Amino acid sequence: GQESARLAAHWSTHPASQTIVFRDASGRVEGFLMLLALEKLDAGERQLDPAAAAAWGMLEKAAPLQSDERATLFRFWMARSTYQRVSPVQSRIFVAMVQHYLSTPRLAHTFLPCAQPEFWRGIFAHADMHRLEAADFAVDERRYGVFGHDWRVMGPFPWLSLFAEREIAAGLPHAQLDLKKDVSTLSEAEFAQAVGDALRTLHHANALRTNPLLRSHLVVQRAGANGDEAARLAALRTLLRQAAEPLQQTPRQNKLFRALHHTYFQPAATQEQAAELLDVPFSTYRRHLRAGIEHVAQALWAQASSHEG
């Protein structure tokens, strides 16, 4: 749209931006990636662009940068003929992003806007890139969904190892789901226990695939009646996070969301480190975490009950 074109032109000459151009063998431009260093912009400059303003606002609210830390917004990324769809150029763009993760000192956070976030949700979840609805924005009457990663919680090289482990695990044989037992036989207490177990095994597919919630009407409806196990795993992860996200709406409840975020959605190495990141005593962190788990369990129980009713 016109406004996006204006913003791209504006940032293209700004010292806080970097543009990587992708060409074919003949030299023809096939796509590009524009990176924006958010920490190098002043408040007025960030407000000129809804994407920069939303990303910075989320960062300031959830986990502000230290004086020497960096945050990158992948402001524009696209291929000439396929825009943001899967393509060889898109693959080259993502490789450039990974190179940025691995080579940027003191990188704290990255933000990746997508025109079709639901298409990319499962793929990015596999790569530990989390859906950041608080950073969503609109330009030219079109809404963009944003994904991101906090590199202070999991650094680039541990992230690379995790990604490799998930790629290997995805190819391992595993037990198939027993679809004959319906989750509606669970009591509310058993359901809550299953939610807690799902959160604790969120990034461990071999453990998560044994969770009884995968047989719930809630998950089946989200994954589709013909959805395979991978689709149900992705659906369960999405439902857990979506049940937690409303906690961000008030300062009091946001403490519970942040405890969940740094323990399960984007986990610190240990719970002690999560408490340090949140800057609260360990006992306070544990109290917030328990309350957050209870909220997620209650929210999903209410959804499941309405489906069964």
In short:
This protein has helices spanning 2-12, 43-47, 50-62, 88-103, 117-126, 156-170, 188-200, 205-208, 217-223, 229-244, 251-265, 271-278, 282-308, and strands spanning 17-23, 29-37, 70-79, 107-114, 130-131, 137-139, 142-150. The chain has 309 residues and is α+β, with helices and mostly antiparallel strands.
Question: What keywords describe this structure?
Answer:
7 strands, 309 residues, alpha+beta, 13 helices, single chain, globular, 7-stranded mixed β-sheet, Aminopeptidase, 2 domains
Structure description:
By secondary structure, the chain is an alpha+beta fold. The protein folds into two domains: 2-159, Aminopeptidase; 174-308, no CATH class. It is built from 13 helices and seven strands. Strands 1, 2, 3, 4, 5, 6 and 7 form a seven-stranded mixed β-sheet that branches. It is globular. The termini are far apart.
Shape: globular
Q: Helix share of residues?
A: 40-55%
Pick out the low-confidence regions. Answer: 171-184
**Major β-sheet annotation:** 7 strands, mixed
Order of helices and strands: HEEHHEHEHEEEHHHHHHHH
- Based on the structure given, which CATH architecture of the largest domain is correct? 3-Layer(aba) Sandwich
- Compute the number of strand runs: 7
- Reading off the top of the CATH hierarchy, the class of the largest domain is best stated as Alpha Beta
Work out the helix count.
13
Average predicted local confidence, pLDDT: 87
**Rg for CA atoms:** 20 Å
Q: Compute the number of structural domains.
A: 2
State which percent range the strand residues make up.
15-25%
Distance between the termini: 45 Å
Structural class estimated from helices and strands: alpha+beta
CATH topology of the largest domain: the name is Aminopeptidase
